[in-house]
Specification:
- The structure holds two protein chains of two kinds.
- Chain A has seven helices and ten strands.
- By secondary structure, chain A is of the alpha/beta class.
- Chain A has a domain of about 160 residues: 3-Layer(aba) Sandwich (Rossmann fold), CATH 3.40.50.
- In chain A, the strands form two sheets. In chain A, strands 6-7-8-3-9-10 form a six-stranded mixed β-sheet, with helices on both faces.
- In chain A, about 45% of the residues are buried.
- Chain B has two domains: about 190 residues, no CATH class; about 90 residues, 2-Layer Sandwich (Alpha-Beta Plaits).
- In chain B, about 70% of the residues lie in helices and about 10% in strands.
- Chain B is built from nine helices and four strands; from the N terminus they run ααβαβαβαβαααα.
- In chain B, helix 2 packs antiparallel against helix 9.
- Classes of the chains: A alpha/beta, B alpha+beta.
- Chains A and B meet through helix 2 and helix 3 of A and helix 1 and helix 7 of B.
């Protein structure tokens, strides 16, 4: 996968790939999920987003995916202003993002190959290109021999690798991971994190939401801590702040 | 949209049938059951209407003329009658034909004693109506014509037939509308439930950048195929059963053969097939289109 080139991100002039300016999000019942959040992430960064349950991490990821829109403020991802983006442009915007969920979200009725190939079908690749690209990306996540298996026949770690392969096959400039190790045992969690680190080293910007104190403290990356919708800490080589 | 993407979406629609076997089977069974009931009801109603129509065709009005009327005037009256919209066709029976018929039917060899035609003034027109409910209006018009002596009609037959016709029409239409409404409700509910359980799949597709068309089209094609199959099964069953039942009834009630005039299966299918396919495919299309749209807002 080393020679595979990423999509060229649409950076802002100062090299930022993700920008949140004074972003707030309130739900209809009045609870503020995010409150005046400012966050700037440059191309190629590896950022952990941590915080207790209900701190606003999932809301942040949903807004970066343009599943939710902010009540106030401005979000720019890959050069798209997400408050102004037209509905018809959202699929095109999302094709430049990779997304990995805690519960993998694979198409259960399709095998590993078809799950990964599906992402290529969406961007209208030819069958020949798909036949060439899918085995390559499956090999890069260590699943070359399992392309015929259905998700239910795989372990949690393997399913997460399929999700990673699907997220990576279109060479996104940003990879969003929402609790990617939440359903995995410690050994498998580390395997996935090493894989994410390799992906980041090849230039992909990573945003990883996690609860794993051990992983965050060991990896020495930038750590953004949220508490009740507010960023209370944003440190390079940061540590997981204890709940108290 | 590239052609290969369109072909892929259509192919996925067909593949989905196999991937979701239980949904496919349940939907086809629901659609087939509803449309089979509809087909049966329609076949019965159409045949009752046809039998009534045949009976109506046999109801006639007879017009007799004044003594000494000229042949030209009789022809003139005949032409005027044939121009009336309520008239299907007419038959002219001359005095000679009337007498010949009477002799054959009632007198036999005793007719030899007659040297002159006693039915000299009995030439007449038998008028067969296009719509028996208009008999009254026609009789009123005929009575006022110069040269017309007498008009014979069967008012009771006409009014009875008109009444039965109206009842059959109202009941048939009412039942068909109710059955169609129930069918549409059941079929769209089945499609709705079948797609709603796959909302996670729709969400995944949207998250990784699928357009609404890319997500929706396989579902729509899948449901249209289900609709077509759900329509084809009852149509084939009706086609097979119809001929058997019609043959059985004709043999069983042979004494009523002049009344029991069944429509041919092709006549029934000419209307039934497009309606069933339109309902099956139409509900498949609309139901899936609307249901998927609800889950596209991801």
């Amino acid at each position: 996968m080393g020679d595979r080139r990423r999509r060229r991100p649409r950076l802002q002039p100062d090299g930022e790939i993700i920008t949140l300016e004074n972003v707030s999000k309130s739900y209809t019942h009045g609870v503020a999920a995010l409150d005046n959040v400012n966050l700037h992430i440059n191309e190629g960064e590896f950022v952990f987003i941590v915080g207790k349950t209900g701190s606003g991490k999932s809301t942040l990821i949903k807004m970066l995916l343009r599943e939710l829109t902010p009540t106030e403020g401005r979000i720019v991802v890959n050069g798209y202003d997400l408050r102004k983006i037209r509905h018809s442009k959202i699929p095109i915007f999302r094709r430049n993002l990779g997304i990995v969920f805690q519960d993998f979200r694979l198409l259960k009725d399709r095998n590993v190959y078809d799950n990964v190939a599906f992402a290529q079908r969406i961007v209208q690749k030819s069958s020949r290109e798909i036949r060439r690209n899918v085995p390559t990306v499956l090999e890069s996540v260590g699943l070359a021999g399992k392309y015929k298996q259905k998700p239910r026949e795989l372990s949690g770690g393997e399913q997460q690798r399929v999700a990673l392969a699907r997220a990576l096959i279109n060479k996104p400039s940003i990879l969003l991971c929402d609790e990617p190790t939440g359903n995995l045992d410690p050994k498998t969690s580390w395997e996935i994190m090493r894989l994410l680190e390799q992906i980041n080293e090849r230039g992909t910007t990573l945003l990883v939401v996690t609860h794993s104190k051990e992983i965050v403290n060991a990896m020495q990356k930038r750590v953004v801590t949220l508490n009740r919708g507010v960023i209370i800490s944003d440190e390079e080589n940061g540590m997981y702040l204890d709940d108290d | 949209m590239k052609i290969r993407t369109l072909i892929y979406c259509i192919g996925q629609g067909f593949r989905n049938l196999g991937r979701n076997k239980s949904f496919t089977a349940a939907s086809i069974a629901t659609i087939a059951s509803c449309l089979f009931l509809f087909s049966m009801l329609f076949s019965v109603a159409a045949n009752i209407q046809n039998i009534l129509y045949s009976v109506e065709k046999g109801v006639s009005v007879t017009v007799f003329f004044d003594p000494g009327i000229t042949d030209e005037r009789i022809q003139e009256i005949g032409a005027m009658i044939n121009q009336r919209p309520e008239v299907d066709h007419t038959e002219f029976i001359s005095a000679e034909q009337a007498w010949d018929s009477f002799k054959t039917e009632y007198l036999g060899e005793y007719a030899d004693g007659f040297t002159e035609n006693p039915l000299e003034d009995m030439s007449n027109y038998q008028i067969y109506l296009a719509d028996v409910s208009l008999q009254g209006a026609l009789v009123d018009w005929l009575t006022g014509l110069e040269g017309v002596r007498k008009v014979n009609q069967s008012e009771a037959t006409a009014s009875t037939l008109t009444g039965i016709n109206a009842i059959v029409a109202y009941v048939s239409v009412g039942l068909i509308v109710i059955l169609l409404a129930v069918s549409i409700f059941l079929i769209s509910n089945t499609v709705n439930v079948g797609i709603s359980v796959r909302r996670e799949e729709i969400g995944i597709m949207k998250y990784i950048g699928a357009t609404d068309f890319f997500v929706r089209s396989p579902f729509v094609i899948e449901c249209m195929i289900i609709g077509a199959m759900g329509a084809a099964i009852p149509l084939a069953t009706t086609y097979y059963l119809y001929n058997r039942v019609a043959t059985y009834l004709t043999v069983r009630f042979s004494t009523l053969s002049n009344i029991l005039s069944f429509l041919t299966v092709n006549q029934v299918m000419k209307f039934l097939a497009p309606v069933c396919f339109a309902i099956g495919i139409g509900i498949g299309f609309i139901g899936s289109f609307v249901t998927v749209r609800r889950h596209l807002k991801v």
